[in-house]
Write the C-alpha coordinates for this entry.
Amino acid sequence: MAALQQSTLDAIRAEEAELLASWSANLDALGATRDVRINQQVVQQQTRQFLGLLVAAANTADATDIGAAAFADVRRFLEDLSRSRAQQGFDAQHTASFIFSLKRPLFALVQRLYRSDAEALASQVWAITELLDALGLHTVRTFQKSREDIIARQQEELLELSTPVVKLWDGVLALPMIGTLDSQRTQVVMESLLQRIVETGSETAIIDITGVPTVDTLVAQHLLKTVTAIRLMGADAIISGVRPQIAQTIVHLGLDLQGIVTKANLADALALALKRQGVSFERKS
Amino acid sequence: MDRIPILKMGDLLLVTIQVDMHDQLALRLQDDLTEQIRAISARGVLIDISGLDIVDSFIGRMISTIAGLASIMDARTVLVGMQPAVAITLVELGLTLPGVETALDVDRGMRLLRTPRDTP
Protein backbone atom coordinates (compact mmCIF):
# COMPACT_ATOMS: atom_id res chain seq x y z
CA MET A 1 0.00 0.00 0.00
CA ALA A 2 1.46 3.27 -1.06
CA ALA A 3 0.81 6.36 0.98
CA LEU A 4 0.98 9.94 -0.08
CA GLN A 5 4.26 11.46 0.98
CA GLN A 6 4.47 14.63 3.00
CA SER A 7 6.30 16.39 0.18
CA THR A 8 3.41 15.59 -2.20
CA LEU A 9 0.89 17.00 0.23
CA ASP A 10 3.00 20.10 0.71
CA ALA A 11 3.19 20.55 -3.02
CA ILE A 12 -0.56 20.14 -3.37
CA ARG A 13 -1.10 22.79 -0.74
CA ALA A 14 1.45 25.12 -2.29
CA GLU A 15 0.03 24.83 -5.79
CA GLU A 16 -3.61 24.69 -4.77
CA ALA A 17 -4.68 27.59 -6.93
CA GLU A 18 -3.06 26.14 -10.00
CA LEU A 19 -4.52 22.69 -9.32
CA LEU A 20 -8.00 24.11 -8.91
CA ALA A 21 -7.69 26.08 -12.12
CA SER A 22 -6.61 23.07 -14.06
CA TRP A 23 -9.25 20.85 -12.44
CA SER A 24 -11.94 23.38 -13.34
CA ALA A 25 -10.60 23.48 -16.87
CA ASN A 26 -10.90 19.71 -17.01
CA LEU A 27 -14.45 19.82 -15.72
CA ASP A 28 -15.24 22.50 -18.28
CA ALA A 29 -13.82 20.32 -21.03
CA LEU A 30 -16.11 17.50 -19.90
CA GLY A 31 -19.03 19.89 -20.09
CA ALA A 32 -19.73 19.51 -16.39
CA THR A 33 -20.11 23.21 -15.79
CA ARG A 34 -22.04 24.12 -18.91
CA ASP A 35 -25.23 22.56 -17.61
CA VAL A 36 -28.20 24.77 -16.84
CA ARG A 37 -28.87 22.83 -13.67
CA ILE A 38 -25.64 23.87 -12.03
CA ASN A 39 -23.54 27.02 -12.37
CA GLN A 40 -19.81 27.47 -12.56
CA GLN A 41 -19.45 29.25 -9.24
CA VAL A 42 -21.01 26.34 -7.39
CA VAL A 43 -18.72 23.83 -9.06
CA GLN A 44 -15.68 25.95 -8.35
CA GLN A 45 -16.65 26.34 -4.74
CA GLN A 46 -17.17 22.58 -4.49
CA THR A 47 -13.75 21.84 -6.00
CA ARG A 48 -12.06 24.21 -3.56
CA GLN A 49 -13.89 22.73 -0.60
CA PHE A 50 -13.13 19.17 -1.67
CA LEU A 51 -9.43 19.75 -2.20
CA GLY A 52 -9.13 21.47 1.18
CA LEU A 53 -10.89 18.61 2.96
CA LEU A 54 -8.84 16.01 1.07
CA VAL A 55 -5.49 17.55 1.98
CA ALA A 56 -6.55 17.99 5.61
CA ALA A 57 -7.64 14.35 5.80
CA ALA A 58 -4.59 12.95 4.01
CA ASN A 59 -2.38 14.96 6.31
CA THR A 60 -3.67 13.33 9.45
CA ALA A 61 -4.17 9.74 8.47
CA ASP A 62 -2.92 6.89 6.41
CA ALA A 63 -4.19 8.08 3.07
CA THR A 64 -4.99 4.66 1.70
CA ASP A 65 -8.06 3.95 3.78
CA ILE A 66 -10.97 6.26 3.08
CA GLY A 67 -13.04 4.44 5.70
CA ALA A 68 -10.83 5.95 8.43
CA ALA A 69 -12.24 8.53 10.82
CA ALA A 70 -9.99 11.23 9.39
CA PHE A 71 -11.86 10.94 6.08
CA ALA A 72 -15.27 11.41 7.69
CA ASP A 73 -15.52 15.02 6.49
CA VAL A 74 -14.49 14.10 2.95
CA ARG A 75 -17.01 11.26 2.89
CA ARG A 76 -19.77 13.48 4.20
CA PHE A 77 -18.96 16.13 1.61
CA LEU A 78 -19.08 13.56 -1.21
CA GLU A 79 -22.33 12.08 0.11
CA ASP A 80 -23.94 15.52 0.14
CA LEU A 81 -22.57 16.20 -3.32
CA SER A 82 -23.86 13.00 -4.90
CA ARG A 83 -27.19 13.32 -3.15
CA SER A 84 -27.70 16.82 -4.53
CA ARG A 85 -26.54 15.64 -7.98
CA ALA A 86 -29.00 12.74 -7.86
CA GLN A 87 -31.83 15.07 -6.93
CA GLN A 88 -30.90 17.45 -9.72
CA GLY A 89 -31.18 14.55 -12.11
CA PHE A 90 -27.55 14.11 -13.17
CA ASP A 91 -26.32 10.69 -14.20
CA ALA A 92 -23.72 8.57 -12.42
CA GLN A 93 -21.03 9.35 -14.97
CA HIS A 94 -21.31 13.06 -14.41
CA THR A 95 -21.13 12.66 -10.65
CA ALA A 96 -18.12 10.34 -10.74
CA SER A 97 -16.22 12.47 -13.25
CA PHE A 98 -16.22 15.26 -10.69
CA ILE A 99 -13.67 13.22 -8.70
CA PHE A 100 -11.89 11.48 -11.56
CA SER A 101 -11.11 14.68 -13.42
CA LEU A 102 -8.89 15.68 -10.50
CA LYS A 103 -6.49 12.88 -11.45
CA ARG A 104 -4.89 14.62 -14.37
CA PRO A 105 -3.87 17.83 -12.59
CA LEU A 106 -2.53 15.81 -9.67
CA PHE A 107 -0.53 13.52 -11.95
CA ALA A 108 0.94 16.54 -13.69
CA LEU A 109 1.88 17.95 -10.31
CA VAL A 110 3.70 14.86 -9.04
CA GLN A 111 5.33 14.46 -12.40
CA ARG A 112 6.90 17.88 -12.02
CA LEU A 113 7.73 17.25 -8.39
CA TYR A 114 9.51 13.88 -8.82
CA ARG A 115 11.07 14.55 -12.19
CA SER A 116 14.32 12.92 -11.13
CA ASP A 117 12.98 10.11 -8.94
CA ALA A 118 11.12 7.50 -11.00
CA GLU A 119 10.40 5.21 -8.05
CA ALA A 120 8.86 7.93 -5.94
CA LEU A 121 6.86 9.16 -8.95
CA ALA A 122 5.41 5.71 -9.56
CA SER A 123 4.51 5.19 -5.93
CA GLN A 124 2.88 8.63 -5.65
CA VAL A 125 0.91 8.17 -8.87
CA TRP A 126 -0.29 4.84 -7.54
CA ALA A 127 -1.22 6.36 -4.18
CA ILE A 128 -3.23 9.14 -5.84
CA THR A 129 -4.96 6.69 -8.14
CA GLU A 130 -5.94 4.43 -5.27
CA LEU A 131 -7.23 7.30 -3.17
CA LEU A 132 -9.21 8.98 -5.92
CA ASP A 133 -10.63 5.68 -7.16
CA ALA A 134 -11.83 4.82 -3.69
CA LEU A 135 -13.39 8.26 -3.30
CA GLY A 136 -14.93 8.06 -6.74
CA LEU A 137 -16.46 4.68 -5.99
CA HIS A 138 -17.77 6.00 -2.72
CA THR A 139 -19.42 8.84 -4.62
CA VAL A 140 -21.01 6.48 -7.11
CA ARG A 141 -22.21 4.20 -4.34
CA THR A 142 -23.86 7.10 -2.52
CA PHE A 143 -25.27 8.38 -5.78
CA GLN A 144 -26.83 5.01 -6.49
CA LYS A 145 -28.24 4.80 -2.99
CA SER A 146 -29.79 8.25 -3.31
CA ARG A 147 -31.36 7.22 -6.61
CA GLU A 148 -32.69 4.03 -5.07
CA ASP A 149 -34.15 6.02 -2.19
CA ILE A 150 -35.89 8.30 -4.66
CA ILE A 151 -37.28 5.30 -6.57
CA ALA A 152 -38.46 3.59 -3.38
CA ARG A 153 -40.21 6.76 -2.26
CA GLN A 154 -41.91 7.15 -5.63
CA GLN A 155 -43.04 3.53 -5.54
CA GLU A 156 -44.58 4.07 -2.13
CA GLU A 157 -46.36 7.18 -3.33
CA LEU A 158 -47.60 5.30 -6.37
CA LEU A 159 -48.94 2.55 -4.15
CA GLU A 160 -50.86 5.03 -2.05
CA LEU A 161 -52.16 6.87 -5.08
CA SER A 162 -53.43 3.77 -6.78
CA THR A 163 -55.84 2.52 -4.15
CA PRO A 164 -58.76 4.85 -3.74
CA VAL A 165 -61.93 3.28 -2.39
CA VAL A 166 -64.96 5.34 -3.38
CA LYS A 167 -68.48 5.22 -2.07
CA LEU A 168 -70.98 5.02 -4.91
CA TRP A 169 -74.15 4.69 -2.91
CA ASP A 170 -75.20 4.07 0.63
CA GLY A 171 -73.82 0.58 1.20
CA VAL A 172 -72.02 0.31 -2.14
CA LEU A 173 -68.27 0.75 -2.36
CA ALA A 174 -66.25 0.79 -5.56
CA LEU A 175 -62.56 0.18 -6.10
CA PRO A 176 -61.33 1.31 -9.52
CA MET A 177 -58.11 -0.62 -10.11
CA ILE A 178 -55.55 0.95 -12.42
CA GLY A 179 -52.31 -0.66 -13.52
CA THR A 180 -50.84 -4.11 -13.20
CA LEU A 181 -51.80 -6.10 -10.15
CA ASP A 182 -48.96 -7.73 -8.23
CA SER A 183 -48.93 -9.41 -4.84
CA GLN A 184 -47.91 -6.32 -2.93
CA ARG A 185 -50.46 -4.04 -4.56
CA THR A 186 -53.24 -6.57 -4.17
CA GLN A 187 -52.41 -6.84 -0.49
CA VAL A 188 -52.62 -3.07 0.02
CA VAL A 189 -55.78 -2.80 -2.08
CA MET A 190 -57.42 -5.72 -0.29
CA GLU A 191 -56.60 -4.31 3.15
CA SER A 192 -57.89 -0.83 2.39
CA LEU A 193 -61.07 -2.17 0.79
CA LEU A 194 -61.82 -4.56 3.67
CA GLN A 195 -61.13 -1.80 6.18
CA ARG A 196 -63.56 0.51 4.41
CA ILE A 197 -66.19 -2.21 4.32
CA VAL A 198 -65.97 -2.50 8.11
CA GLU A 199 -65.97 1.27 8.58
CA THR A 200 -68.95 1.98 6.35
CA GLY A 201 -70.85 -1.26 6.85
CA SER A 202 -71.27 -1.59 3.11
CA GLU A 203 -72.84 -4.76 1.84
CA THR A 204 -71.58 -4.58 -1.72
CA ALA A 205 -68.11 -3.93 -3.03
CA ILE A 206 -67.50 -3.43 -6.75
CA ILE A 207 -63.99 -4.07 -8.05
CA ASP A 208 -63.58 -2.33 -11.38
CA ILE A 209 -60.76 -3.73 -13.49
CA THR A 210 -61.17 -1.47 -16.53
CA GLY A 211 -57.72 -0.03 -15.86
CA VAL A 212 -55.98 -3.38 -15.49
CA PRO A 213 -54.07 -3.99 -18.73
CA THR A 214 -53.84 -7.78 -18.61
CA VAL A 215 -55.16 -10.61 -16.53
CA ASP A 216 -53.03 -13.71 -16.07
CA THR A 217 -53.37 -16.63 -13.69
CA LEU A 218 -51.65 -14.74 -10.89
CA VAL A 219 -53.88 -11.69 -11.21
CA ALA A 220 -56.94 -13.92 -11.36
CA GLN A 221 -55.80 -15.65 -8.21
CA HIS A 222 -55.37 -12.31 -6.47
CA LEU A 223 -58.86 -11.25 -7.53
CA LEU A 224 -60.24 -14.55 -6.31
CA LYS A 225 -58.57 -14.08 -2.93
CA THR A 226 -59.95 -10.58 -2.57
CA VAL A 227 -63.45 -11.71 -3.47
CA THR A 228 -63.26 -14.59 -0.98
CA ALA A 229 -62.04 -12.28 1.79
CA ILE A 230 -64.93 -9.90 1.07
CA ARG A 231 -67.38 -12.79 1.25
CA LEU A 232 -65.90 -13.99 4.54
CA MET A 233 -66.51 -10.57 6.01
CA GLY A 234 -70.14 -10.81 5.05
CA ALA A 235 -70.28 -8.52 2.04
CA ASP A 236 -70.79 -9.27 -1.65
CA ALA A 237 -68.24 -8.58 -4.34
CA ILE A 238 -68.90 -7.75 -7.98
CA ILE A 239 -66.13 -7.54 -10.55
CA SER A 240 -66.82 -5.07 -13.32
CA GLY A 241 -65.03 -3.72 -16.34
CA VAL A 242 -64.16 -7.06 -17.92
CA ARG A 243 -62.99 -6.07 -21.40
CA PRO A 244 -63.39 -8.42 -24.37
CA GLN A 245 -59.66 -9.23 -24.51
CA ILE A 246 -59.58 -9.97 -20.81
CA ALA A 247 -62.63 -12.21 -21.09
CA GLN A 248 -60.92 -14.07 -23.92
CA THR A 249 -57.70 -14.42 -21.95
CA ILE A 250 -59.54 -15.75 -18.92
CA VAL A 251 -61.38 -18.34 -20.99
CA HIS A 252 -58.24 -19.34 -22.92
CA LEU A 253 -56.27 -19.76 -19.73
CA GLY A 254 -59.04 -21.97 -18.42
CA LEU A 255 -59.38 -19.89 -15.26
CA ASP A 256 -62.27 -20.73 -13.03
CA LEU A 257 -64.10 -17.61 -11.95
CA GLN A 258 -67.14 -19.57 -10.86
CA GLY A 259 -68.94 -18.04 -7.95
CA ILE A 260 -67.76 -14.55 -8.81
CA VAL A 261 -70.30 -12.13 -10.17
CA THR A 262 -68.84 -10.31 -13.16
CA LYS A 263 -70.28 -7.41 -15.12
CA ALA A 264 -69.13 -5.72 -18.28
CA ASN A 265 -69.09 -2.22 -16.85
CA LEU A 266 -69.40 -0.30 -13.65
CA ALA A 267 -72.92 0.94 -14.46
CA ASP A 268 -74.23 -2.62 -14.72
CA ALA A 269 -72.53 -3.53 -11.48
CA LEU A 270 -74.04 -0.54 -9.69
CA ALA A 271 -77.46 -1.38 -11.12
CA LEU A 272 -77.15 -4.93 -9.76
CA ALA A 273 -75.99 -3.68 -6.35
CA LEU A 274 -78.93 -1.30 -6.12
CA LYS A 275 -81.35 -4.00 -7.24
CA ARG A 276 -80.11 -6.23 -4.44
CA GLN A 277 -80.77 -3.42 -1.99
CA GLY A 278 -84.27 -3.02 -3.37
CA VAL A 279 -83.62 0.44 -4.80
CA SER A 280 -85.35 1.24 -8.08
CA PHE A 281 -85.43 4.26 -10.33
CA GLU A 282 -87.91 5.64 -12.75
CA ARG A 283 -87.59 8.38 -15.31
CA LYS A 284 -89.88 11.37 -14.78
CA SER A 285 -92.33 11.32 -17.67
CA MET B 1 -62.62 -17.46 31.64
CA ASP B 2 -62.72 -21.06 30.53
CA ARG B 3 -65.94 -21.15 28.58
CA ILE B 4 -67.57 -19.10 25.85
CA PRO B 5 -71.19 -18.24 26.70
CA ILE B 6 -73.92 -19.38 24.33
CA LEU B 7 -77.02 -17.18 24.44
CA LYS B 8 -80.43 -18.46 23.51
CA MET B 9 -82.77 -16.15 21.58
CA GLY B 10 -85.96 -17.99 20.75
CA ASP B 11 -84.92 -20.80 18.49
CA LEU B 12 -81.63 -19.13 17.65
CA LEU B 13 -78.31 -19.42 19.41
CA LEU B 14 -75.90 -16.50 19.69
CA VAL B 15 -72.24 -17.12 20.32
CA THR B 16 -70.06 -14.06 20.89
CA ILE B 17 -66.35 -14.62 20.91
CA GLN B 18 -64.80 -11.69 22.78
CA VAL B 19 -61.51 -13.22 23.85
CA ASP B 20 -58.63 -14.62 21.90
CA MET B 21 -59.46 -18.22 21.24
CA HIS B 22 -57.09 -20.90 22.36
CA ASP B 23 -57.38 -24.50 21.29
CA GLN B 24 -58.97 -25.85 24.48
CA LEU B 25 -61.57 -23.10 24.46
CA ALA B 26 -62.44 -23.85 20.85
CA LEU B 27 -62.90 -27.57 21.49
CA ARG B 28 -65.07 -26.82 24.50
CA LEU B 29 -67.22 -24.43 22.46
CA GLN B 30 -67.71 -27.14 19.88
CA ASP B 31 -69.04 -29.55 22.54
CA ASP B 32 -71.23 -26.95 24.26
CA LEU B 33 -72.72 -25.68 21.03
CA THR B 34 -73.72 -29.06 19.65
CA GLU B 35 -75.24 -29.92 23.02
CA GLN B 36 -77.24 -26.67 23.04
CA ILE B 37 -78.45 -27.12 19.46
CA ARG B 38 -79.76 -30.54 20.39
CA ALA B 39 -81.31 -29.29 23.64
CA ILE B 40 -83.43 -26.51 22.11
CA SER B 41 -83.63 -27.83 18.52
CA ALA B 42 -82.08 -24.58 17.35
CA ARG B 43 -82.97 -23.39 13.88
CA GLY B 44 -80.03 -21.05 13.50
CA VAL B 45 -76.66 -20.27 15.02
CA LEU B 46 -75.08 -16.83 14.89
CA ILE B 47 -71.38 -16.66 15.61
CA ASP B 48 -70.04 -13.17 16.23
CA ILE B 49 -66.27 -13.04 15.85
CA SER B 50 -65.85 -9.26 15.78
CA GLY B 51 -63.72 -9.47 18.91
CA LEU B 52 -61.32 -11.90 17.31
CA ASP B 53 -58.19 -10.16 16.09
CA ILE B 54 -55.95 -13.11 15.33
CA VAL B 55 -56.69 -16.57 13.98
CA ASP B 56 -54.42 -19.48 13.28
CA SER B 57 -55.10 -22.47 11.09
CA PHE B 58 -56.55 -24.44 14.00
CA ILE B 59 -59.10 -21.79 14.93
CA GLY B 60 -59.91 -21.25 11.28
CA ARG B 61 -60.62 -24.92 10.84
CA MET B 62 -62.60 -24.92 14.08
CA ILE B 63 -64.90 -22.21 12.76
CA SER B 64 -65.55 -24.20 9.63
CA THR B 65 -66.05 -27.40 11.69
CA ILE B 66 -68.60 -25.72 13.95
CA ALA B 67 -70.48 -24.48 10.91
CA GLY B 68 -70.42 -27.94 9.42
CA LEU B 69 -71.63 -29.56 12.67
CA ALA B 70 -74.46 -27.07 12.99
CA SER B 71 -75.67 -27.59 9.47
CA ILE B 72 -75.66 -31.38 9.93
CA MET B 73 -77.88 -30.81 12.96
CA ASP B 74 -80.12 -28.72 10.70
CA ALA B 75 -79.23 -25.34 12.15
CA ARG B 76 -78.25 -22.57 9.80
CA THR B 77 -74.95 -20.97 10.68
CA VAL B 78 -74.10 -17.34 10.02
CA LEU B 79 -70.66 -15.96 10.77
CA VAL B 80 -70.68 -12.23 11.46
CA GLY B 81 -68.23 -9.41 12.11
CA MET B 82 -65.06 -10.88 10.73
CA GLN B 83 -62.16 -8.44 10.94
CA PRO B 84 -60.25 -7.63 7.72
CA ALA B 85 -57.01 -9.08 9.10
CA VAL B 86 -58.77 -12.31 10.00
CA ALA B 87 -60.39 -12.56 6.56
CA ILE B 88 -57.03 -12.06 4.85
CA THR B 89 -55.38 -14.67 7.07
CA LEU B 90 -58.09 -17.24 6.41
CA VAL B 91 -57.86 -16.68 2.66
CA GLU B 92 -54.07 -16.98 2.74
CA LEU B 93 -54.44 -20.20 4.72
CA GLY B 94 -56.79 -21.48 2.04
CA LEU B 95 -59.74 -21.68 4.43
CA THR B 96 -62.50 -20.16 2.32
CA LEU B 97 -65.25 -21.63 4.49
CA PRO B 98 -67.53 -22.87 1.71
CA GLY B 99 -71.11 -23.31 2.80
CA VAL B 100 -70.84 -20.86 5.66
CA GLU B 101 -73.03 -17.81 5.37
CA THR B 102 -71.56 -14.49 6.42
CA ALA B 103 -72.83 -11.05 7.36
CA LEU B 104 -71.24 -7.77 8.33
CA ASP B 105 -72.72 -7.46 11.82
CA VAL B 106 -75.09 -9.17 14.26
CA ASP B 107 -78.03 -7.07 13.08
CA ARG B 108 -77.65 -8.14 9.45
CA GLY B 109 -76.91 -11.69 10.53
CA MET B 110 -80.21 -11.86 12.42
CA ARG B 111 -82.06 -10.52 9.40
CA LEU B 112 -80.40 -13.17 7.26
CA LEU B 113 -81.46 -15.94 9.66
CA ARG B 114 -85.07 -14.74 9.63
CA THR B 115 -85.34 -14.78 5.85
CA PRO B 116 -86.00 -18.18 4.34
CA ARG B 117 -83.06 -20.04 2.92
CA ASP B 118 -82.51 -19.66 -0.84
CA THR B 119 -81.89 -23.33 -1.48
CA PRO B 120 -84.47 -25.81 -0.27
Observations:
- Chain B has a mean pLDDT of 85.
- The CA atoms of residues 4 and 118 of chain B lie 31 Å apart.
- Chain B touches chain A at residues 79-84, 86-88, 90-92, 96-97, 102-105, 108-109 (CB under 8 Å).
- The longest helix of chain B spans residues 23-40.
